[in-house]
Amino acid sequence: ARALELGGVVPFRLCTIYDDADHVREMLEGERASLRAALDRVRGMAEWGVKGYLTDVPAPEPATAASGTAWLERKREDRAAAERAQEVAEHRMATIHARLAEHAAAATLSRPQDRRLSGHEGEMLLNASYLVEKARAADFGAVVEALGREHEPHGVRLELTGPWAAYHFVGSEG
């Protein structure tokens, strides 16, 4: 965090280990061009994370019917309604991502995290990272807040995290 305050940061992969200072110098010399390009790309920037959760997922009413055929039809209807609701929620999150990407120099999507591992409430449908100019960070935060208010009545909660070093934007894929 302190290094990020001072300037551009190119984070290393997790568990990057060098035996000694000579190996570090050797790597820095060998990777000079790619490191310089990465630093140029992230200078004046920070990564912001936005997670989108679907928090208002109505549970279907238990299927009850007078006959087995009616019960099966009700189960089919419940499944179809749940699939439609999921499609609508995914479309809503894609729209949010597109709007946020308009306010960033770059954007990327990661797989949503399983709530059993992360402990979050609701179903995570958006797990995105945005490369944002530090000078525009407050504006980006305001857009996230406005989108959160706009979509809250539809059971969507947005969470903004950061600023982070540009982990998602410094690799060879850039």
Order of helices and strands: HHHEHEHEHE
Low-confidence stretches: none
End-to-end separation: 21 Å
Structural class given helices, strands, pairing? alpha+beta
Q: What secondary-structure arrangement, pairings included, does this model have?
A:
Layout: H1 2-6, H2 21-30, H3 32-42, E1 45-54, H4 68-101, E2 106-109, H5 115-118, E3 123-133, H6 137-151, E4 156-164
Antiparallel strand pairs: 1-3, 1-4, 2-3
Written description of the protein model:
- By secondary structure, the chain is an alpha+beta fold.
- Helix content is 45%, strand content 20%.
- The chain has a 4-stranded antiparallel beta sheet, covered by helices on one side.
State the main characteristics:
4 strands; alpha+beta; 174 residues
Would you summarize the structure shown here?
The chain is α+β, with helices and mostly antiparallel strands. Helices cover 45% and strands 20% of the residues.
